[in-house]
Amino acid sequence: MTLRIDVITIFPNLILEALAHGIVARAIEQGLARVAAHDLRTFTDDRHRRVDDAPFGGGPGMVMRAEPFFRAVEAIMPEGASAERPIILLSPRGEKFTHKKARDYSKLERLVLLCGRYEGIDERVRTGLATAELSLGDFVVMGGEVPALAVIEASVRLIPGALGAAESSEQDSFENDLLDHPHYTRPADFRGQKVPEVLLSGDHAAIGKWRRQQAAEATKARRPDLGRD
């Protein structure tokens, strides 16, 4: 099954140019994923193609209008949302995006991502259109495009066949509620910093044990919250 991803944005080229390289581009070439970026301005009803307006109640900035988002989704997915076809609003107010969510998304039939800009999006997009609201973390960026790209890359790389070796994703940080172990490559001694002897030993059982220990220690020290859900 091919995962289809639709991004609704006022900057479609920003999405498409970023995905023209690397693992996502290869996954698209292999038919594992399809990504389309839709220009929100084409779904407006005035000659100026405005997607924003002043907020009711006053205040700084402009608010993105609800109508273009509804029209865009109705045009590209007239069958509507479902468990296999969620509509995600990228927003600082959303639930935190996680590796687990990325893995769930990698198994979907279709994913629609809504990218906001300006001061915010009309609340009726969240309550009447989106099935979920996601945030990358406790910070604010200029719009939803960068978060959308993160969601796409994190999800597509987990589709079976997207990576050169399946083990690559199985050893990722956050798999099994652990951070990844340290990695080393040549030279074995770089400016006095030496690769741990166990990695040069050829003893795969000992190497595996060392890596598990390092992953557990890193998780305990840096992310003790992992695995508490």
Question: Can you walk me through this structure?
Answer:
By secondary structure, this protein is α/β, with parallel strands linked by helices. It folds into two domains: 3-156, Alpha/beta knot; 171-222, Trp Operon Repressor, Chain A. Helices cover 33% and strands 19% of the residues. It contains eight helices and ten strands. It has helices at 12-18, 22-29, 66-76, 99-105, 123-128, 145-156, 166-170, 204-222, and strands spanning 3-9, 33-39, 52-53, 63-64, 87-96, 110-115, 120-121, 132-135, 189-190, 193-194. The strands form three sheets. It has a five-stranded parallel β-sheet with strand order 2-1-6-5-8, sandwiched between helices. The protein has a three-stranded mixed β-sheet with strand order 3-4-7. Helix 4 (99-105) links the parallel strand 5 and strand 6 (110-115). Helix 4 crosses helix 6 (145-156). The longest helix is centred in the C-terminal third of the chain and has 19 residues, at 204-222. The radius of gyration is 21 Å and the shape is elongated. The two termini are 30 Å apart. The model has no long low-confidence stretch (mean pLDDT 94).
| Order of neighbouring strands in the sheet with most strands | 2-1-6-5-8
**CATH class of the largest domain, please?**
Alpha Beta
**Envelope shape:** elongated
Low-pLDDT ranges = none
Q: Given the structure, what is the number of helices?
A: 8
Q: What would CATH call the homologous superfamily of the largest domain? A: SPOUT methyltransferase, trefoil knot domain
**Which assembly state applies to the chains in this document?**
single chain
- CATH-scheme architecture of the largest domain: 3-Layer(aba) Sandwich
Q: What characterizes the major β-sheet?
A: 5 strands, parallel
The structural class is alpha/beta
Strand content: 15-25%
Query: Average pLDDT, to the nearest integer?
Result: 94
If you consult CATH, what is the topology of the largest domain?
A: Alpha/beta knot
